[in-house]
Amino acid sequence: MIILDSGRVIDPANKIDGIRTVLINGERIAGVREQPATPAEKLVHQVIDCRGRWVLPGLVDLHVHLREPGEESKETIASGARAAVAGGVTTVIAMPNTKPVCDSAAVARFVAGRGREAGFARVLPAGAITHAPAASSSPTWPS
User: Fold this and answer.
1) CB 31 within 8 A of CB 40
2) Which of 15, 68, 74, 107 has its CA 20 to 30 A from that of 49?
């Protein structure tokens, strides 16, 4: 059991905004209470002092540029997802301006799959609203 002791819990879904202690068992929240960790709990469990800190639900970043596929020298899906969780972000929406553009189910599946393989933040691909023209074709404009 991990105990997040006496942090400011902000949980809009459960209408909580106050000093609470959060009990975590495995990957699940086992409870949220107003009482701080007891001396006995501190002997048996991992207790993290959260006084002066915020305890929030996982955050979602709706606009990230992960650069993969195509510009992995700038950032990969794995490195971006790792950075996200380090900052408390549990889900990212990957913008479609990659090379190739995320304008097909195949590219979207690739981005989502690489996100699952990375195992950090959940990666959801955003699709382009228009289909990118082939590199050899020139755009046509209406008269």
Assistant:
1) no
2) 15
- Please return the burial class of 106, using the count of CB atoms within 10 Å of its CB with bins 0-12, 13-18 and 19+: exposed
CA distances from 78 to 28, 36, 60, 121, 136 (A): 24, 37, 16, 9, 31
Question: CA–CA separation, 51 vs 54, rounded Å?
Answer: 8
Cβ atoms < 10 Å from Cβ of 134: 7
Residue with tokens 């690489």: 114
Candidates 51, 76, 56, 53; CA nearest to 66 is 76
Tokens 């975590």 belong to 24
The full DSSP string for 74-112 is T--HHHHHHHHHHTTEEEEEE-S-SSS-S-SHHHHHHHH
Angle ∠(119,125,126) on CA atoms, nearest 5: 155
Contact (CB, 8 A) for 36 and 5: yes
